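Hi all, a correction to my earlier message: I attached the wrong file for Phosphoadenosine phosphosulfate reductase. Here's the right sequence:
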Amino acid sequence: MALTEAQVQQLNVQFKGIPPQEIISWAVKHAKVPVVTTNFRPYEVAILHAVSEVRKDIPVVWCDTGYNTPKTYKHAEELTERLNLNIKLYVPKQTTAHRDAVMGIPQIDDPRHAEFTEQVKLEPFKRAMADFQPDVWFTNLRKGQTAHRDSLDILSLSKDGVLKVSPFYHWNDTQLDAYLKKYDLPNEHNYFDPTKVLANRECGLHS
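and the right structure:
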């Protein structure tokens, strides 16, 4: 879906306050190759449920760093089965055990941190995007998560021109809790991202 920045801004004005399902339906209708990405972090179930309700077979790209908590992996299994998700799993080319032996998890000020992030997150993501070449990318980005994400909106264009659609962008945790309660959906807060260290640090995929 080829949109200009001006068109994106105009649509964002129109979409503010519109139910997520309507935004998703609009995007799916105009998309040629839509995908949704997930890491099964807290509240990811909302976007997975909303998108799969509109398009059952949409590819769900999961870039698993290999460092998720046992509870996250169990949560992923539960959601995959319950929502019948079309999971497309992407993992680093090097095993976690191998990396732990030679590098471990570098601290943010360690020169190896950039290489670590590239290995466990960015390379698998780039590989997934190269495989699918989507024109629409559904995410659960929300305002207030990071400074960079505050500069985005419901619709935004990635560096490669892919239309990112974040239908819950203006929702807060209370609203999402109500959504999960309405549809009796599970949530899981025991989540670990080895590349971020700080909760409000950008993960690298959206910057």
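Sorry for the mix-up. The mean pLDDT is 92.
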